[in-house]
Amino acid sequence: MDLLHGDLDDHLYHSGHPFSEPDARVVVGQVLAALAFMHEKHVSHRDVKLNNIMIATKPTPDAPATPWSVRLGDFGTSQYHADPALAPDGRINTHGTPNYKAPELFYQVEPEEATLLLFEAKADMWALGVTVYRMLTGEAPYGVLPEDPDPSQVRKFCREGPPKGPLDKAGVSELARGFIGVLTKKSARQRPTAGQALEHSRWVSETA
Protein backbone atom coordinates (compact mmCIF):
# COMPACT_ATOMS: atom_id res chain seq x y z
CA MET A 1 0.00 0.00 0.00
CA ASP A 2 1.30 3.44 -0.93
CA LEU A 3 2.14 6.00 1.74
CA LEU A 4 0.14 9.10 0.78
CA HIS A 5 0.98 12.69 1.63
CA GLY A 6 -2.24 14.66 1.74
CA ASP A 7 -4.44 15.67 -1.15
CA LEU A 8 -4.39 18.25 -3.93
CA ASP A 9 -6.63 20.64 -2.04
CA ASP A 10 -4.14 20.71 0.85
CA HIS A 11 -1.27 21.21 -1.59
CA LEU A 12 -3.03 24.07 -3.36
CA TYR A 13 -3.78 25.78 -0.06
CA HIS A 14 -0.31 25.41 1.47
CA SER A 15 1.63 26.21 -1.70
CA GLY A 16 -0.16 29.54 -2.04
CA HIS A 17 -0.23 29.43 -5.83
CA PRO A 18 -1.87 27.44 -8.65
CA PHE A 19 -0.31 24.41 -10.30
CA SER A 20 1.98 24.94 -13.26
CA GLU A 21 0.55 23.51 -16.46
CA PRO A 22 3.29 20.85 -16.80
CA ASP A 23 2.57 19.59 -13.27
CA ALA A 24 -1.19 19.76 -13.80
CA ARG A 25 -0.93 17.78 -17.05
CA VAL A 26 0.90 14.96 -15.29
CA VAL A 27 -1.65 14.82 -12.48
CA VAL A 28 -4.68 15.07 -14.77
CA GLY A 29 -3.32 12.37 -17.06
CA GLN A 30 -3.10 10.01 -14.08
CA VAL A 31 -6.62 10.87 -12.92
CA LEU A 32 -7.98 10.34 -16.43
CA ALA A 33 -6.30 6.93 -16.57
CA ALA A 34 -7.91 6.02 -13.23
CA LEU A 35 -11.34 7.18 -14.39
CA ALA A 36 -11.01 5.39 -17.72
CA PHE A 37 -10.19 2.17 -15.86
CA MET A 38 -13.10 2.61 -13.46
CA HIS A 39 -15.62 3.41 -16.18
CA GLU A 40 -14.42 0.44 -18.25
CA LYS A 41 -15.11 -1.74 -15.19
CA HIS A 42 -18.62 -0.21 -14.94
CA VAL A 43 -17.86 1.93 -11.88
CA SER A 44 -18.62 5.65 -11.62
CA HIS A 45 -16.72 7.65 -9.00
CA ARG A 46 -19.40 10.31 -8.36
CA ASP A 47 -17.24 12.66 -6.26
CA VAL A 48 -14.18 13.70 -8.26
CA LYS A 49 -12.55 16.74 -6.61
CA LEU A 50 -9.20 18.03 -5.37
CA ASN A 51 -9.77 16.58 -1.89
CA ASN A 52 -10.14 13.07 -3.34
CA ILE A 53 -6.92 13.10 -5.36
CA MET A 54 -4.20 11.88 -3.00
CA ILE A 55 -0.50 12.59 -3.37
CA ALA A 56 1.96 9.68 -3.42
CA THR A 57 5.00 11.71 -4.52
CA LYS A 58 5.62 15.30 -5.57
CA PRO A 59 8.55 17.64 -6.17
CA THR A 60 10.02 19.26 -3.04
CA PRO A 61 12.71 21.91 -2.50
CA ASP A 62 15.10 19.13 -1.49
CA ALA A 63 14.10 16.86 -4.38
CA PRO A 64 12.78 19.07 -7.21
CA ALA A 65 13.09 16.28 -9.77
CA THR A 66 10.69 14.00 -7.90
CA PRO A 67 7.78 13.27 -10.26
CA TRP A 68 4.14 13.85 -9.43
CA SER A 69 2.29 10.64 -8.62
CA VAL A 70 -1.32 10.70 -7.43
CA ARG A 71 -4.09 8.28 -6.53
CA LEU A 72 -7.82 8.80 -6.98
CA GLY A 73 -9.46 7.96 -3.67
CA ASP A 74 -12.61 8.08 -1.53
CA PHE A 75 -15.00 5.65 -3.15
CA GLY A 76 -17.71 6.13 -0.53
CA THR A 77 -20.21 7.38 -3.10
CA SER A 78 -18.94 5.33 -6.05
CA GLN A 79 -21.39 3.07 -7.84
CA TYR A 80 -20.86 -0.28 -9.51
CA HIS A 81 -23.26 -0.80 -12.40
CA ALA A 82 -23.94 -4.52 -12.57
CA ASP A 83 -25.99 -3.91 -15.70
CA PRO A 84 -24.05 -1.33 -17.76
CA ALA A 85 -26.94 -1.14 -20.24
CA LEU A 86 -29.43 -0.01 -17.59
CA ALA A 87 -31.28 3.16 -18.58
CA PRO A 88 -31.08 6.13 -16.18
CA ASP A 89 -34.83 6.82 -16.00
CA GLY A 90 -35.98 7.24 -12.42
CA ARG A 91 -32.57 6.38 -10.97
CA ILE A 92 -30.93 9.80 -10.82
CA ASN A 93 -29.70 11.10 -7.49
CA THR A 94 -27.85 14.27 -6.58
CA HIS A 95 -24.59 12.70 -5.42
CA GLY A 96 -21.34 14.66 -5.37
CA THR A 97 -19.93 17.84 -3.88
CA PRO A 98 -22.01 20.89 -4.88
CA ASN A 99 -19.09 23.00 -6.16
CA TYR A 100 -18.11 20.20 -8.54
CA LYS A 101 -21.55 18.94 -9.55
CA ALA A 102 -22.57 18.75 -13.20
CA PRO A 103 -25.65 20.83 -14.15
CA GLU A 104 -27.71 17.74 -14.89
CA LEU A 105 -27.28 16.74 -11.23
CA PHE A 106 -28.26 20.21 -10.01
CA TYR A 107 -31.40 20.41 -12.08
CA GLN A 108 -32.18 16.71 -12.53
CA VAL A 109 -32.89 17.27 -16.21
CA GLU A 110 -33.89 14.54 -18.62
CA PRO A 111 -30.74 12.44 -19.12
CA GLU A 112 -29.12 12.71 -22.54
CA GLU A 113 -27.15 9.50 -22.21
CA ALA A 114 -28.68 6.11 -22.91
CA THR A 115 -27.30 4.35 -19.83
CA LEU A 116 -26.95 5.23 -16.17
CA LEU A 117 -23.25 4.31 -16.28
CA LEU A 118 -22.52 6.76 -19.11
CA PHE A 119 -24.69 9.43 -17.47
CA GLU A 120 -22.65 9.22 -14.28
CA ALA A 121 -19.33 8.87 -16.14
CA LYS A 122 -20.03 12.15 -17.95
CA ALA A 123 -20.78 13.80 -14.58
CA ASP A 124 -17.35 12.58 -13.45
CA MET A 125 -15.85 14.37 -16.44
CA TRP A 126 -17.57 17.64 -15.55
CA ALA A 127 -16.20 17.37 -12.01
CA LEU A 128 -12.72 16.78 -13.42
CA GLY A 129 -13.08 19.92 -15.54
CA VAL A 130 -13.89 21.94 -12.41
CA THR A 131 -10.92 20.28 -10.70
CA VAL A 132 -8.56 21.33 -13.49
CA TYR A 133 -9.91 24.89 -13.38
CA ARG A 134 -9.17 25.05 -9.67
CA MET A 135 -5.71 23.55 -10.12
CA LEU A 136 -4.72 26.14 -12.72
CA THR A 137 -6.35 29.23 -11.17
CA GLY A 138 -6.58 28.47 -7.46
CA GLU A 139 -10.22 29.55 -7.55
CA ALA A 140 -13.63 27.91 -7.77
CA PRO A 141 -15.40 28.57 -11.08
CA TYR A 142 -18.72 29.03 -9.30
CA GLY A 143 -19.64 29.38 -5.67
CA VAL A 144 -17.38 30.53 -2.86
CA LEU A 145 -15.80 27.53 -1.19
CA PRO A 146 -16.87 25.94 1.05
CA GLU A 147 -20.34 27.43 0.52
CA ASP A 148 -22.71 25.69 -1.88
CA PRO A 149 -23.06 27.56 -5.17
CA ASP A 150 -26.20 29.48 -6.01
CA PRO A 151 -28.05 27.78 -8.91
CA SER A 152 -27.86 31.04 -10.85
CA GLN A 153 -24.06 30.80 -10.78
CA VAL A 154 -24.20 27.35 -12.32
CA ARG A 155 -26.59 28.59 -15.01
CA LYS A 156 -24.22 31.47 -15.80
CA PHE A 157 -21.31 29.02 -16.05
CA CYS A 158 -23.29 26.86 -18.46
CA ARG A 159 -24.27 29.90 -20.52
CA GLU A 160 -20.91 31.69 -20.64
CA GLY A 161 -18.35 28.97 -19.96
CA PRO A 162 -15.54 28.96 -17.39
CA PRO A 163 -14.95 32.46 -15.91
CA LYS A 164 -12.15 34.10 -17.88
CA GLY A 165 -10.83 36.50 -15.23
CA PRO A 166 -9.00 33.92 -13.09
CA LEU A 167 -7.76 32.13 -16.24
CA ASP A 168 -6.32 35.39 -17.58
CA LYS A 169 -4.75 36.27 -14.23
CA ALA A 170 -3.05 32.87 -14.02
CA GLY A 171 -1.88 32.99 -17.66
CA VAL A 172 -3.62 29.72 -18.52
CA SER A 173 -2.93 28.59 -22.09
CA GLU A 174 -5.55 28.35 -24.82
CA LEU A 175 -5.06 24.57 -24.96
CA ALA A 176 -5.78 24.25 -21.24
CA ARG A 177 -8.81 26.53 -21.54
CA GLY A 178 -10.10 24.40 -24.37
CA PHE A 179 -9.61 21.24 -22.31
CA ILE A 180 -11.54 22.70 -19.37
CA GLY A 181 -14.22 23.93 -21.75
CA VAL A 182 -14.83 20.57 -23.39
CA LEU A 183 -15.03 18.77 -20.02
CA THR A 184 -17.58 21.30 -18.80
CA LYS A 185 -19.91 21.36 -21.78
CA LYS A 186 -23.48 21.90 -20.60
CA SER A 187 -24.58 18.97 -22.75
CA ALA A 188 -23.25 15.75 -21.23
CA ARG A 189 -23.33 14.17 -24.66
CA GLN A 190 -20.75 16.69 -25.89
CA ARG A 191 -18.26 15.86 -23.13
CA PRO A 192 -15.60 13.25 -23.92
CA THR A 193 -15.26 10.02 -22.03
CA ALA A 194 -12.18 9.63 -19.86
CA GLY A 195 -10.63 7.36 -22.47
CA GLN A 196 -11.27 9.85 -25.26
CA ALA A 197 -9.84 12.73 -23.24
CA LEU A 198 -6.76 10.71 -22.33
CA GLU A 199 -6.13 9.63 -25.91
CA HIS A 200 -7.06 12.72 -27.89
CA SER A 201 -6.50 15.78 -25.70
CA ARG A 202 -3.62 17.86 -27.04
CA TRP A 203 -3.23 19.58 -23.70
CA VAL A 204 -2.85 16.34 -21.72
CA SER A 205 -0.39 14.85 -24.22
CA GLU A 206 1.65 18.04 -24.68
CA THR A 207 5.17 17.84 -23.27
CA ALA A 208 6.76 20.68 -21.35
From TrEMBL:
<feature type="region of interest" description="Disordered">
    <location>
        <begin position="186"/>
        <end position="208"/>
    </location>
</feature>
<keyword id="KW-0067">ATP-binding</keyword>
<dbReference type="GO" id="GO:0005737">
    <property type="term" value="C:cytoplasm"/>
</dbReference>
<dbReference type="GO" id="GO:0004674">
    <property type="term" value="F:protein serine/threonine kinase activity"/>
</dbReference>
<keyword id="KW-0723">Serine/threonine-protein kinase</keyword>
<dbReference type="Pfam" id="PF00069">
    <property type="entry name" value="Pkinase"/>
</dbReference>
<keyword id="KW-0547">Nucleotide-binding</keyword>
<dbReference type="InterPro" id="IPR008271">
    <property type="entry name" value="Ser/Thr_kinase_AS"/>
</dbReference>
<dbReference type="InterPro" id="IPR000719">
    <property type="entry name" value="Prot_kinase_dom"/>
</dbReference>
<feature type="domain" description="Protein kinase">
    <location>
        <begin position="1"/>
        <end position="203"/>
    </location>
</feature>
<dbReference type="InterPro" id="IPR053235">
    <property type="entry name" value="Ser_Thr_kinase"/>
</dbReference>
<keyword id="KW-0418">Kinase</keyword>
<keyword id="KW-0808">Transferase</keyword>
<feature type="compositionally biased region" description="Basic and acidic residues">
    <location>
        <begin position="199"/>
        <end position="208"/>
    </location>
</feature>
<protein>
    <recommendedName>
        <fullName>non-specific serine/threonine protein kinase</fullName>
        <ecNumber>2.7.11.1</ecNumber>
    </recommendedName>
</protein>
<dbReference type="GO" id="GO:0005524">
    <property type="term" value="F:ATP binding"/>
</dbReference>
<dbReference type="InterPro" id="IPR011009">
    <property type="entry name" value="Kinase-like_dom_sf"/>
</dbReference>
